[in-house]
Design a protein that fits this description.
This protein has 80 residues and is an alpha+beta fold. The protein has two helices and seven strands; from the N terminus they run E-E-E-H-H-E-E-E-E. It starts with a strand and ends in a 6-residue tail after the last strand. It comes from Leptospira yasudae.
């Protein structure tokens, strides 16, 4: 299944802001995060402290992603 992913903040330095992952179903948010970690191991620490949303609603790692939904990966923000 193709899963649309959007990244924000520092993660945009490592991934495109919008991209597609092809994963085996069923797909959990955690599966998306683990695939991102495999592609860019240097982001592991950032992904560990990031929050996730699906269709603009905050979700947990076990949330199943349905075809057509968008997963948002939200790292901690800082600055002024």
């Amino acid at each position: 299944m193709n899963v649309a992913v959007k990244t924000f903040g520092i993660l945009k330095d490592h991934f495109q802001s919008d991209f597609i992952l092809n994963l085996e179903t069923p797909v959990r948010v955690l599966d998306v995060v683990e695939e991102m970690r495999k592609k860019k191991p240097a982001t592991s620490g950032i992904l560990d402290v990031s929050l996730w949303a699906v269709q603009d609603k905050m979700v947990g790692a076990d949330r199943i992603v349905e075809e057509g939904e968008v997963v948002l990966i939200l790292p901690p923000l800082s600055g002024g």
